[in-house]
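Let us practice reading a record.
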Amino acid sequence: MSDLFDQLLLSKQRFVICGDFNVPGADSSSLNPLMDNLISRYNLVQHVHQATHTAGNLLDLVITAESDSQLVSGTSVTQTPLPTDHYLVLCNLQRGAERSTVVSFSYRDIRTINLTRFALIWLRPNCSSVLTTWMQMHTLS
């Protein structure tokens, strides 16, 4: 588990870990102390706080980094009609809208180019480089 937490935290990506960890604690709302300490040591947050198994154990977890704990809200545990000894864990996952990349560009309105001057610049013998031509083009009016 430590290796997974190391890799996730080093990746600098937001994450939500969820699943059947099978690490029951002393009562229906606690984890095995080793798992609880591991979560604390990595500054993680475990969002499920009630039994997720019919035997009264907390086995199914939803974990985030403490800095991203707002990713998960409204965690609840409910019975399911499916043939299983686990309850259904529900939660809301917040996903921020990704910022669009702003691309800006400019262009020259070709209707304002003096075509006579344009032709003369391109026909000049001393117009030896593209850069010189580009600079001369930007002085057209």
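A brief commentary: The chain has two domains: 2-93, 107-141.
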